[in-house]
Amino acid sequence: MSQKPFRLSVKAVIHDEEDRILLLKRSMSSKGNPGKWDLPGGKIDVGEDFAEALMREVLEETGLTISIQRVAGTAESESNAFKVVYLIMEGRLEIGQLLLSDEHDEYLWVGRGELVKIDLCEQFRGFAREYSRMKD
Fold first, then answer.
1. 32, 26 Cβ separation under 8 angstroms
2. pLDDT, tens digit, for every residue of 10-48?
3. Top-level CATH class of 6-133?
4. Inter-residue contact 88 to 75 (CB < 8 Å)
5. Residue 97: strand pairing partners
6. What is residue 120's DSSP assignment?
7. What gap in Å lies between CA 77 and CA 4, rounded to an integer?
8. For residue 96, what is the DSSP state?
9. Which residues, 6+ apart, have CB-to-CB distance to 105 below 8 Å?
């Protein structure tokens, strides 16, 4: 029996100046989790540093520039072809005006305690429970 290959994806918990967290609503035409709330981020290109990949993905999806502060947690999911491991980094909004890409239909800034009340992608619900309890 062969094991499914692993893929690494990077996601960001982005805090603004009011310490709210940015969530993005996946487009209804999305292949995965259409209409669900998600964290900004995505796949790492071959040979790309994970921090560079995260900052690139956030810029592409939102038009925002962030700084990465620390590791916030991990999550995982599985498809027919592979397993995805998510490295979730905590970041701070630095500059930019929020402008969504075609991948997302809406955005929302929420308080840490509100994370568990949002219809997040399944793979991030456990992380949201843990993160909402964390103190800085």
1. yes
2. 999 999 999 999 999 999 988 888 899 999 999 998 899
3. alpha beta
4. yes
5. none
6. B
7. 12
8. -
9. 25, 26, 27, 28, 35
